[in-house]
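Here is the promised in-class demo. Please do not try to memorize the tokens; focus on the logic of going from shape to residues.
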């Protein structure tokens, strides 16, 4: 309205109200409060497993607790940390290794599903998780080992996240290898 942006994100009974004008945000909250019983929790700090931290440079989104819980759940809290989510030159195929039993298959599927959720704040694991997700129907011990490697990479810096810097203007920059332009 009037060139101002206001956003409302709703997930079940949780809401985020945001925008570029404090007055508009207040009006939106008042309108919602007239219809629903609301509790204002103040500035957003945690939502759906994603931690929000503000600084002078901008906003950081991370999933530190989610990552540590995943490492604990899989028994990998004390695992060896890796600098990369996948070993360079790794080629995984459907025929790699021995197929996991039904219990192992379920564990693999749950782990990859949780890794997919982690890609929200960890775009650096997206390729490796994309490769792992191709084998959800018939995972093998090699696929499991590759998934454990991603966990080792996450252990290296569980609080790593995305920084959204403060800017007056939105700018989009693209880069390309000249050989592929």
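The designed amino acids, position by position:
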């Amino acid at each position: 309205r009037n060139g101002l942006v206001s956003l409302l994100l709703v997930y079940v009974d949780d809401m985020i109200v945001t925008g570029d004008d404090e007055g508009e945000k207040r009006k939106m909250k008042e309108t919602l409060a007239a219809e629903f019983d609301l509790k204002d929790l103040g500035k957003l700090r945690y939502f759906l497993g994603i931690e929000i931290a503000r600084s002078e440079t901008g906003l950081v989104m991370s999933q530190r607790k989610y990552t540590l819980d995943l490492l604990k759940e899989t028994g990998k809290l004390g695992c060896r940390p890796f600098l990369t989510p996948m070993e360079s030159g790794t080629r995984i195929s459907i025929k790699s290794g021995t197929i996991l039993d039904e219990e192992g298959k379920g564990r693999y599927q749950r782990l990859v599903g949780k890794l997919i959720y982690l890609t929200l704040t960890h775009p650096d694991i997206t390729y490796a998780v994309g490769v792992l997700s191709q084998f959800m129907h018939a995972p093998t011990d090699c696929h499991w080992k590759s998934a454990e490697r991603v966990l080792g990479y996450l252990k290296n810096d569980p609080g790593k996240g995305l920084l959204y810097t403060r800017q007056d203007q939105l700018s989009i920059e693209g880069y390309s290898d000249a050989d592929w332009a």
